[in-house]
Design goal:
Blueprint: H1 4-14, H2 17-38, H3 43-80, H4 89-117, H5 142-153, H6 157-163, H7 166-183, H8 188-209, H9 212-226, H10 230-262, H11 266-283, H12 286-300, H13 305-318, H14 321-337, H15 344-360, H16 365-377, H17 386-432
Length: 433
């Protein structure tokens, strides 16, 4: 009979991370109900909540620790991998333009829905009151916001790295990435170093994720012990809002953008993209779906291989309509749970940060958790709130990944049309001359 340690390792290997987190969620809820039944002043409850507080604090602090290197290296490497060939110039300009517009439309939709339906409003979770003690609720005019925003973008990068100034770090990473593109082979050593830094950071994220089931269990035990079942109803309302707005973006906004530029009818697109959309829904991974997405785009939707081969792999990395919508809406949901009213300027900060988070996050589930912390912290919301979001994240991930993949295919069709139109106009201009 093998030793107990070997049995534990074998069981852990057989259980996926999602399964382990799910078990952590169940145990956390059960422990929270037990502590609530005994009373928070009981000896077992006090000791249990104290240990849970230590575990959850370490878990949240570890996520904060890797946030800055993850965002810096992923954005710098992502921009540097854009190839600056003359024949590709119009392609990548059109591609990035479409990605920004489609993600902005998704976030506007998500923020509007959360402002209308207000999921989580009125609960004022006690667990977050200490974390929100230093929340800065002062009003700021739009002019003041832009002045402070622009001033905060361009600062000493070393000071930004030390202070965790995420927006300044992102700006320096973008400049560095562009410089690496323009430098080409001259700076290949720097690019290789950054790529290795990204791989090392992702490896550390993988280590941290081994603690995720325990951290989530501890956070939920504290949450359930101090709250009532009204939270469950609020979560259901939030899930309905996210699924509804994400599907609305999928069946209305993106098809309208496609039809406006290419005159391709939505039904024709969905017939050609069906295999990729089903695969994305089943796998919850844009990267795993990539071969199917390319095949659908090239064979069924008739996108040229050179355009599909550029737009779709890039989109699988940085074009995240569903993710941007979810992270922006989740920030408003958490603000409602914490009893905080986010004004228009603070929601604009959430908008900008969610856009950056969606672009900068590598295509792994655990990195999405780290960037969610970034969005929450941009307006002073508690990072501990990911304990509420993680149990429902797997359900929502299937829908938003499907929309992410849909956006990549629609982007390839729109870019092909725009580039073909530019080429035709250029030809007519040269002929006229």
């Amino acid at each position: 009979m093998p030793p107990v340690s070997q049995l534990r390792e074998q069981i852990a290997m057989r259980l996926s991370l999602n399964t382990q987190i799910f078990l952590g969620v169940l145990l956390g809820v059960l422990l929270g109900l037990l502590f609530a039944q005994l009373g928070t002043e009981a000896t077992l409850s006090r000791h249990g909540l104290y240990v849970g507080g230590l575990v959850s604090t370490v878990f949240i602090d570890l996520l904060k620790m890797v946030l800055v290197p993850l965002v810096f290296t992923s954005i710098a490497v992502g921009v540097a991998n854009l190839r600056l060939h003359q024949q590709m110039h119009r392609v990548w300009v059109a591609t990035l333009g479409f990605f920004v517009v489609s993600m902005a439309a998704a976030m506007v939709l998500g923020l509007t829905a959360c402002n209308l339906f207000e999921p989580g409003k009125g609960l004022n979770l006690a667990m977050f009151q200490t974390a929100m003690h230093g929340f800065d609720a002062k009003q700021m005019t739009l002019a003041d916001f832009f002045s402070k925003f622009l001033h905060g973008l361009f600062v000493n990068p070393f000071a930004a790295l030390a202070q965790g100034n995420v927006l300044a770090i992102v700006m320096f990473a973008l400049f560095l990435g562009v410089a690496l593109v323009l430098g080409g082979e001259r700076y290949r050593t720097v690019l290789a170093l950054l790529q290795e830094g990204l791989e090392i950071t992702l490896r550390m994220v993988g280590w941290i994720m081994h603690l995720a089931p325990f951290g989530i269990m501890a956070l939920l035990a504290q949450l359930v012990a101090s709250q009532n079942t009204a939270l469950l109803a609020s979560l259901a309302k939030f899930v309905a809002v996210i699924v509804g707005t994400t599907l609305l973006h999928s069946v209305l906004v993106l098809p309208l953008m496609l039809y406006a530029v290419t005159r391709i009818k939505p039904l024709a697109f969905f017939r050609g993209a069906r295999e990729a959309l089903i695969t994305a829904f089943a796998t919850s991974s844009s990267s795993a779906t990539l071969p199917v997405t390319l095949r659908c785009a090239e064979q069924h939707l008739h996108v040229k291989p050179d355009i599909a081969g550029f737009v779709i792999p890039l989109g699988a990395t940085i074009n995240m309509d569903g993710t941007a919508l979810y992270e922006a809406a989740a920030a408003l949901f958490i603000a409602n749970l914490a009893g905080v009213e986010l004004n228009a300027v603070q929601q604009l900060i959430v908008f900008c940060t969610a856009m950056i988070a969606a672009i900068g996050a590598p295509g792994i589930p655990s990195a999405g958790m780290v960037t969610m912390v970034m969005v929450l912290q941009s307006v002073g919301l508690p990072a501990e709130a990911i304990a509420i979001l993680l149990p429902i994240d797997r359900i929502l991930d299937t829908v938003r990944t499907m929309v992410n993949v849909q956006g990549d295919m629609i982007g390839s069709l729109i870019v092909q049309k725009l580039v073909a139109g530019d080429a035709a106009r250029g030809t007519r201009s040269r002929t006229a001359n």
